[in-house]
Design a protein that fits this description.
The complex is a heterodimer of chains A (121) and B (107). The termini of chain A are far apart. Chain A is built from no helices and eleven strands. With 121 residues, chain A is mostly beta strands. Helix content of chain A is 0%, strand content 50%. By secondary structure, chain B is mainly β. In chain B, 0% of the residues lie in helices and 50% in strands. Chain B is built from no helices and eleven strands. In chain B, the strands form two sheets. In chain B, strands 2, 4, 5, 6, 9, 10 and 11 form a seven-stranded mixed beta sheet that branches. The radius of gyration of chain B is 13 Å and the shape is globular. The model of chain B has no long low-confidence stretch (mean pLDDT 97). The chains are: A mainly beta (121), B mainly beta (107). At the A-B interface, strand 5 of A face strand 4, strand 5 and strand 10 of B.
Chain lengths: 121, 107
Amino acid sequence: EMLLVESGGGLVQPGGSLRLSCAASGFSITDYYMSWVRQAPGEGLEWVSVIYTGGSTYFAESVRGRFTISRDNPNNTLYLQMNTLKSEDTAVYYCVRDPSMGRGYENFDLWGQGTLVTVSS
Amino acid sequence: DIQMTQSPSSLSASVGDSVTFTCRASQSIGTYVNWYQQKSGKAPKLLIYAASTLQRGVPSRFRGSGSGTDFTLTVTSLQPEDFATYYCQQSFTTLITFGQGTKLEIK
């Protein structure tokens, strides 16, 4: 069974840092584009970042310069390092898999259960 | 960024009805649109990709169409498990964006 399991969420003060992890099983994350998508309480979905199979990374404007995405290939784990956190970063963060493999029509066919990040003093 | 605007923001229907969700892109994006269903407290689920291709395992009562700037998701013969929030998403650009969602409620 293919699974994504996020961890690392919690309460952090404004200006603080947090690192989210996403452990994948049943497939190799190096074979897929992997993204983070977040959802603020009661709000819609917001794409945050992607790491391509070749290692290129991209970020939404709202987090560019503060967040980094990376992966640990041997441990099949995706990370999101979040620095200089703001109250507006409060959200459930989902790790997602994109099966398009660079052929276009990127979509998210596998989602984790999400991990809640709360930025508050 | 490409803006995706969904309408209406909410919709009421009964079991057995057919409903149509609309999504409009701020510029032409070909068929680079996907649709997701999200139930309360759960992660979203992919329904349709590339505007009209049904994701494996999704019932055939879900149908996507459109190209350019206007896209629709139609659900025929609504079932109790279909009441949820639906999101469109564009992948025309590297910076992916979602619509704000349409909540489907039971009438």
